[in-house]
Design a protein that fits this description.
About 40% of the residues are buried. By secondary structure, the protein is mostly helical. The N and C termini lie far apart (about 50 Å). The protein is built from 15 helices and two strands. A hairpin with a 2-residue loop joins β1 and β2. About 75% of the residues lie in helices and about 0% in strands. The protein has one domain. α1 runs antiparallel to α11, α3 runs antiparallel to α4 and α8 crosses α9. The radius of gyration is 20 Å and the shape is globular. The chain has a two-stranded antiparallel ribbon.
Length: about 350
């Protein structure tokens, strides 16, 4: 292996690792706040990618209809669960968040999609379509199980994952899609030619990490999420609405997943079930990081990306096996180092 090939593999590993880092951070966030191992995170990568690709081709994305359906389901679930406590003002806010918002996005998409307004508007519209799906899913599938064990929540997450894959086939079809990148420019660094889209991926990943650091460190909602992650009971005792914290965590996870999809669809063909493998690699990084530390998860994601890149060069047929096998020694080490605890702890 000559130095040029080494640098190319490192470049690919860093770009892939940046995407895995975003997914790993969102998985750690959701698990810390809600104790949900959010298996469907990868589906929102595929949804974001395919929604952006549909808008880029001037078509009406099927995901906007799924958004409306999930909004109706979330509205009904919230009305039923809060039937004894909802006030008229609360009902109005609920209807606005679950019915008026999807309806507004639907009307906007019908007006904008045929015009092909450019990558920036299309990317923002794709994020607006996909991101609200996650808090709706939280209201329907996970908030009623908030007091259940981690195992029950994991089973629910697997069920949501399977449903989302099937819905992806229904609304997007079996064909793969690609879309225009944010930039056609490239940067020459010695023997390397770095595509502009790769720079966008790394730059937005770093910007989002800085934004999350500021959000958790300096905003009231961020501090409430941190308190919920540290001690759910204590957070409730001091007046923090843990259900609202869960919605915020899921919303951030949906935003990160959709953004990841928008970033990768110019580089690779994305299918309705592509998100599972991508999300699984982000999950691997989150597990290596202990599902507790954001910096550890980000560093582990870069390691996963580099390992995948070198594995594809040396043994491309076994690259997925090599990547997922890397989690085994980490789990063995953690099981030997740690002590058994009850689920409630």
């Amino acid at each position: 292996m000559d130095p040029t090939i080494l640098l190319i593999l490192l470049q690919d590993g860093i770009v892939n690792g940046a995407i895995y880092a975003l997914l790993a951070l969102s998985l750690v966030l959701v698990f810390a706040v809600t104790r949900v191992v959010f298996i469907p995170q990868g589906e929102f990568v595929a949804y974001g990618a395919l929604t952006y690709a549909a808008l880029d081709s001037g078509q009406m994305p099927g995901s906007v209809w799924l958004l409306c359906a999930l909004g109706v389901a979330a509205c009904l679930a919230s009305l039923w669960s809060g039937r004894h406590a909802l006030t008229p003002r609360g009902v109005v806010r609920l209807l606005a968040a679950t019915l008026l918002l999807p309806a507004g996005i639907l009307l906007l998409t019908r007006q904008v999609a045929p015009l092909r307004p450019g990558v920036l508007v299309e990317a923002l519209l794709a994020l607006a379509i996909v991101t609200p799906m996650t808090p709706y899913l939280y209201r329907v599938a996970f908030r009623p199980l908030a007091q259940a064990s981690v195992l029950v929540l994991l089973i629910a997450a697997v069920g949501v994952h399977l449903a989302m894959v099937g819905l992806g086939l229904v609304f997007f079809g079996p064909e793969g899609s690609r879309a225009a990148g944010f930039s056609e420019a490239s940067l020459a660094l010695g023997p390397l030619t770095v595509p502009g889209q790769s720079l966008w991926i790394v730059g937005l990943t770093l910007a989002l990490m800085v934004g999350l650091y500021g959000f958790f460190g300096y905003t009231l909602y961020g501090k409430a999420l941190r308190a919920t992650a540290v001690n759910r009971l204590g957070a409730r005792l001091v007046g923090i609405a843990t259900a609202q914290s869960g919605e915020i965590a899921f919303t951030l996870a949906g935003l990160i997943g959709a953004l990841s999809g928008v970033l990768i669809v110019p580089l690779t063909t994305v299918y309705y079930d592509t998100g599972f493998i991508i999300g699984l690699k982000g999950f691997t990084a989150a597990i290596i990081g202990g599902l507790a530390s954001y910096p550890a998860a980000a560093l582990a994601a870069l390691g996963v990306g580099v390992l995948e890149s070198f594995s594809s060069f040396w043994a491309s047929a076994f690259k997925e096996v090599i990547v997922f096998t890397a989690i085994i020694p980490v789990l063995l080490w953690r099981s030997l180092k740690g002590t058994a605890t009850e689920d409630g702890e």
